[in-house]
Amino acid sequence: MNKGSYKLLWISFCLVSILTWIVYSCLSGMDSYVTLLLSLAAINFLQGLWILIDRHFARRVFFLVLLALAIGQFWLFLWLGIFLLWKTNGFAP
Q1: Nearest 10 degrees: CA dihedral of 63, 39, 50, 2?
Q2: Which of 4, 13, 79, 91 is most buried (most C-beta within 10 Å)?
Q3: Are 86 and 78 contacting, i.e. CB atoms less than 8 angstroms apart?
């Protein structure tokens, strides 16, 4: 992959993260809210994996992708943490 397409992949990766943040904070009243969030998360994870595969899992790139996923998909980690707490304390829905 040349440098131009690599930069476009990073830009799209960051834009999907920003779009996920916007959807999470502004569009919670939509019927397809969770479906949209999960779709954006899947796209973001696949883009991150593509970046990692392209750069052969370089340490710096790995930590940058991990940081971007943690920021962009914080809602998913928050939900997973809440479900884990509910499950371990016996308050599972």
Answers
A1: -110
A2: 13
A3: no
